[in-house]
Amino acid sequence: MTTEEPPLPRYQQVKRELREAIARREYTPGQPFITQRQVCERFKVSTTTAVRALNDLVAEGVLVRQQGRGTFVADRQETTPARQDGTRSIACVIHGRGPIKAGVVSGVESVCADLSLQMVLFDSKDSLAVQEQALRRALDSGVSGVVLYPVQGTTESAALSEVRRLGIPLVMVDRYLAHTPTDAVIADHFAVGHDLTDHLIGLGHRRMAILWDETDCTSVRDRLSGHLQALRAHGIPERPDFTVLATHQRLDRVERIARLTAMLDHPEPPTVLICSDGYIVATAAADLAHLGVEVPGQVELAGMDDAGPLDILPLTIAAAVVPAEQLGRESMRLLVERINAPTATEPQRTVLPITIHTRDTAVAYLQVMGGRLGA
């Protein structure tokens, strides 16, 4: 079943039409650009919409503002530092798999394409050592900036210190380093934990166990904080055995099944298993089927994000949705802003909203039954 793409917000429609006008050379570098008032009149939009469209184009390096003179089309050869061979490139250092990582890369790539920048993709393979190598390769290739999706456990390293010492703009995406002042664009992971838990409580659940994959990163800690805050707000005591910040996904199957068995055999077992991503949803569903546990029925599944090998919503009672592509776009937008204004030193942290999708919005749901998945 296919669904129509939702219409673009009006300010994005205006941005797209202005970009097309620039591509047709209706406006050229050095020539005054259309004013805010003219945007309002031409596109029949509000001042707020016109300002947002123009500000975004400035942040993306398409336009430049000159004090006392106005707004102009940017000279692409001047707005982004070039390497010795004349090309301009951005490093995207990322690890992992699934729709969130793919969405981030897609968002970064789309802005690079708009600005005629080359994106150089480095896979850090969920390894601090490989991430360090990737950052050094990015430095050696003379990139103008770096978008970094850091692996868990990342600390200030020699390569990160070198990037900062050289003044090369760096924006972290989806997570950040608590003790390193860098720009970051993240999803509202506190809301992921809080709003999903609040929704489950509204459905009558009081005993919720969380199954984690990664455990040593700000996104996970923020999600746990949100979950605990929602429990406190409803007067529900925390169960440390249900919220312990320990990996479940990276255990071998025997250990995972033993852990699930101990939870479900408890005198007060969890009524819902909150999985930190879609891969854990799929793994938990298979393990529960092996145990002969019915889902839904004996226990429910919920997802903290929709990253996984399949559409997890039919398997879950509810799941948080992270705006992956927007994370990539906003990270690039901030990176270009830093490249164009290198003297701006105050770190920025942009937090993007998440949404909660429920089983009611799915076309159908699956049932896990004694060794198989049933529709």
Automatic annotation (TrEMBL):
Record-annotated HTH gntR-type domain positions: 8-76
This protein's record includes keyword Ubl conjugation: no
Any Pfam family hit: GntR
Keyword line: DNA-binding, Transcription, Transcription regulation
SMART domains for this protein: HTH_GNTR
CDD domains: PBP1_LacI_sugar_binding-like, WHTH_GntR
Database matches in SUPFAM superfamilies: Periplasmic binding protein-like I, Winged helix' DNA-binding domain
Record's protein name: DNA-binding LacI/PurR family transcriptional regulator
